[in-house]
Known about the structure:
Strand order of the largest sheet: 3-2-4-1-10-9-11-15
Structural class: alpha/beta
Number of helices: 21
Largest sheet: 8 strands, antiparallel
Low-confidence stretches: none
Bound molecules: 2-deoxy-2-amino glucitol-6-phosphate
Amino acid sequence: MCGIVGVLGLHEAAPILVEALKKLEYRGYDSAGIATVNNGRLERRRAVGKLVNLSDRLVHEPLAGKAGIGHTRWATHGAPSEVNAHPHQAGPVAVVHNGIIENFQDLRDELAQKGYVFQTQTDTETVALLTQFHLEQGLAPVEAAKATIARLRGAYALCFLFDGHEDLLVAARQGSPLAIGHGVGEMFVGSDAIALAPMTNEITYLNEGDFAIITRNSLDIFDVDGQAVVREKKNVSIDATRVEKSGHKHYMAKEIAEQPVVISEAVRYYHGLEDQDSGRLDEIDFTQFDRILMVACGTAYYACFTAKYWFEQIARIPVEVDVASEFRYREAPISPRTLAIFVSQSGETADTLAALRYVSGKADKILTITNSAESSMARESDWTLPILAGVEIGVASTKAFTCQLTVLLILTIEAALSKKAISADEARHKIIALRTLPGLMSQALELRDVIDLIAQELSEVSDVLFLGRGAIYPLALEGALKLKEISYIHAEGYASGELKHGPIALVDPQTPIIVLAPRDRLFEKTVSNMQEVMARGGKVILISDAQGLKEAGADVWKTIEMPPVSDEIAPILYAVPAQMIAYHTAVAKGTDVDQPRNLAKSVTVE
Ligand code: AGP
């Protein structure tokens, strides 16, 4: 995924563009660039690597002008390099792009035959050159951009800037989000409202297929059929401070620390302050469903996998879960009376969106659980449940994961009530347990020093195993993902009962095995699996409560003592030590915690 911005301002555009791109760096950071029009002349500055490299360049080679566009890149076509960095320019037009132009090769061949020469391996350069071609055919800038867009296939959020035009931006979206920000005598374009938060909170989101002509004092939008439309202007309350680090060393540290607050907000959103029901789930009638399908990617998939245990054990509803990149091509038959649930922090992940579109028209209802209420997935669902995690900048998902789990558990309790699988009193007790979670998380956050010491030693190893059983097994997978994606240490998660069927061959004194063992109904089973590992010299880090450590912690390598917790909320609480182990190990290794190599916050391409 990439981040794009545009400014038609009353002040120099370059610093505004760079500030906006800082808010979008979580979307990709392989290269960055801006272009401005100054005294009618279009000029660019680009740099490979993080945005700071572009900022450094602008110090030595400043770029004037009050109209501009900017881009921060996660490379799809063409290696990360200055040549492949956006904005891409062809003669009198520059363009920034988020997405993938799937027919770019055909367009490239067609333009090459017309004598156009390509400087890059990117799909986006095709957009710039095709627009130049239309300009050279005599079309005005807006018409040239419109004619280009009509030829494109694939996903794109685009913003065009034209030589000689200091009061014009053209924007379009198809499959990638795009927001227009309204200033006073100024206008802004951004991949999301976060980028625009420092300048405005008056936001118009473009719909799929929309095309926008923007000047400092006008916004004309045309829909996919070319009809002029008015899209709602919303006051989007993104507190710009909430996208700062608030004194933490990394966004990830801040977001781990925010979990007690955002989880209590999520519980309150659905269940009020006391024992009320907000009514926000009333329209979801589970009696009309016999089964649930859950599809997501990465950490969001592990949230779904955890919820499978809850829906089946508490609500007695059979659940199928799958990763979206597989599901979207599996051609799975969808039975009648199926509720399809999609979980996505960004609401824009291409594989999950494609899976949702496969299910659309087949499942009885589609429900999306997301942190982005204005996202493509939210727009294409029958129901959308917000997770209220607040802006999550760190590429490694933490508070979004535990907020997804919180909403999924709340949904499970609602389903169990509807299906009469539990009584109202049992439901009330589960909500009460959920209300204790923020306090328990705050206690778990106090483990930072214990975990930091362990992390110093983990940072030296090359392989780690995570073990969990039952509803904790998906968390073993998530803990392994967290560690590998930010510390680059190879890690695997396993169902602890599965180890003896082969993976136990991996056990040696060099490989730490992290055992996530709340004292739930499978605790004894997990402990016996752990002892099989220790009998073969395995170095075990046992994470359990005081009683659990007393019963099973005698000969383990390290222990992490957690507060006692009920079975239902254990998978949410135990996410905290898993996140902190990954964080502190990555810090000890010196990797880039917030922007790990090769990753982006949301993958809006296949
Ligand atoms: C999480 O730590 C990862 N960065 C990644 O697996 C992420 O969860 C996945 O890409 C799904 O993103 P989404 O929730 O925005 O759909």
